[in-house]
Design goal:
This protein is an alpha/beta fold and 305 residues long. The chain folds into two domains: 174 residues, Rossmann fold, CATH 3.40.50; 82 residues, 3-Layer(aba) Sandwich (Rossmann fold), CATH 3.40.50. The protein is built from eleven helices and ten strands. The chain has a six-stranded mixed sheet. It has a four-stranded parallel sheet with strand order 5-4-3-6. Helix 2 packs across helix 7 and helix 7 crosses helix 9.
Length: 305
């Protein structure tokens, strides 16, 4: 849909960029000669924290340029992306539609995440899991257009070429501060941009939060996003798939104990579905000797509890 040039853009939301970089003293890293930094992307914006801002902002600008005033996107029942999109719609005066995986959720009381989406004005549309897996199929997209009318489509997790280019700035912010940058991965867009922006002599590691997300599908998806955004595979990056704790949204007593301990040590509330898995993975890698002594590791804190 195209229209007038009155659609608001995200630039007036006053993000905190570049995000703060905080060094933490943690003997689990220090004993191996590793310095740990926290890249506080969770402080970028109170309603669109972390990689959600970096991925959504370029997509919102594209919507504004097209004159689109309705956003449609996809996510699971606990999707941070849905929450961020709903918040962006509220702040910018845009209509939002969230296509939610799992028709069994329809008619049930909304969980806190979806309730927040609804409070922010998002219209929730539940689809069965088979349809959700085919969400990019032309016939599914045509059905959504027939149901909801013209809209600006943002992919699941906000991950597309625009998002990858937006996240490249994260890498540029870290290239002179860290040897290794780490991030939790759901759809791969943040890792794709982060690795591209880091530059020579730096590497990125992504921690898959979905079971089976790496090394097959997610590896291919990160490379696809890089080629779409930059024309080629960019940067030195790899994926770790040992720390998903059984799949998206899954937690274990060990993960919870680790997160509570990290909070106690460093006074940082730790989001469990993404950030805790990444920090737990980094701590394990340090214990395994994966980092050469003298290495500075930056952990990207992508969201809040």
């Amino acid at each position: 849909m195209t229209g007038t040039d009155t659609t608001p853009t995200p630039d007036g939301l006053r993000p905190r960029l570049s995000s703060p970089l905080q060094e933490v003293a943690d003997e689990r890293f220090a004993r191996h000669g590793v310095r740990l930094l926290l890249k506080r992307d969770d402080l970028i914006h109170p309603d669109l924290p972390g990689n959600k801002w970096r991925k959504l902002a370029p997509n919102l600008r594209a919507a504004a340029e097209a004159g689109d005033r309705t956003l449609l996107t996809f996510g699971g029942a606990y999707s941070n992306h849905l929450r961020a999109t709903a918040a962006a719609g509220r702040l910018l005066g845009l209509a939002t539609i969230g296509v939610v995986r799992g028709d069994e959720l329809a008619g049930r009381p909304l969980n806190p995440s979806l309730a927040r989406c609804a409070e922010d004005g998002m219209r929730l549309h539940f689809v069965d899991r088979a349809t959700y897996r085919r969400k990019d199929a032309p016939e599914v997209l045509a059905e959504l257009t027939a149901r909801f009318g013209s809209h600006h489509l943002i992919p699941e997790g906000g991950s597309n070429a625009l998002a990858a280019r937006g996240c490249a700035e994260l890498g540029r912010e870290l290239r002179d501060a860290a040897d290794v940058a780490a991030v939790a991965c759901g759809t791969g867009g943040t890792l794709a941009g982060l690795a591209a922006g880091l530059g020579p002599g730096r590497s990125a590691v992504g921690f898959a939060v979905l079971k089976g997300g790496a090394p097959h599908f997610l590896n291919a998806e990160v490379e696809r996003l890089q080629r779409a955004a930059f024309g080629e595979r960019r940067g030195d990056w790899r994926l770790e798939d040992r720390f998903h704790c059984g799949g998206y949204g899954r937690r274990t007593p060990e993960l919870d104990a680790f997160a509570q301990d990290f909070e106690y040590r460093h006074g940082l509330p730790v989001e469990r579905l993404y950030v805790a898995k990444m920090l737990f993975g980094l701590t394990t890698l340090a214990a395994e000797g994966a980092f050469t002594p003298g290495t500075t590791v930056a952990a990207v804190i992508t969201g809040t509890p």
